[in-house]
Fold:
Amino acid sequence: MACIEKIYSVSALVGSGACNGNCAFCAGKYLRPDAEIDNPLYWKNYEAAIKLCARYGGWSLSLTSSGEPTCSPSAVTKALEVYKKCADQGAYFPNVNLFTNGILFANESFCERWLPRWRELGLTNIAISIHSVDQAEQAAAYRLPRYPEFRKIFEDIRKFGVGVRGTLLLRRGGVDNAESYESAVSRLINDYGVDNITSWPVGNPDGSRSEFTPSRLGILSIRWWLRKNTKLCHGHVWGGGVYDYNGAILRLTDYVTKHDPHKDFVRQLVVFQNGTVAYSWIKEGALCMK
Structure:
């Protein structure tokens, strides 16, 4: 086994697991029974994970949920308060991201109440999960009657000085090949000014393919399009990379990476809501703290 030389990031699940969407392909639903907002072990290990990652050169903290984190805004606030304490002690990350379906950010009162505080506590970016740039198709993916206007969501966030990123999810029947990927990326950049877009294929929580995962040929066509139309900035050691597309940043990666104990790096420490910290979303054989 190799000695760990680098831990790139921390991903932490926060909140009650409540959700205002109802995705058929939800990858977090199986974790909801473990969701406890006031679990002392969780907060202890969450803080330890931040400090450990920073010690090993980490650069990013991502807040997510087994449901929708903005449905538990007080838990997001507490997570950022813990991070701010760590940052003041030297465990600082240049990227602090909140991953969300974005629905509540179309509510101005919600934004006015929470975004100034979250920015003050170190939140740098909000990453909106996008299944389609078509509003009706976006609503259908979340199995909702309607989805708020993208422009409204992005404007509400930017008004409070927080950055907007797009998480353009690759899903069979949606964005699942080079043509649909190029169309979605171009609209996000040109119509909405979203110039930092990350994509990964939808799949099972253990990293295996599901009925919603795009075909291998479709993913290959996206990779080929990136090779032809962008400049590779750098590759990820776990696969994929970061690309410059006319000044915009495009990322292609896998959502789940199984930890390899023979490598000298950890892609991310994952803080689960029962207090477990693992070297991967795939917990078996990859526990760090419990």
Notes: The chain is about 30% helix and 20% strand. The longest helix spans residues 40-55. The first strand starts at residue 6 and ends at 7. The chain has a mean pLDDT of 92.
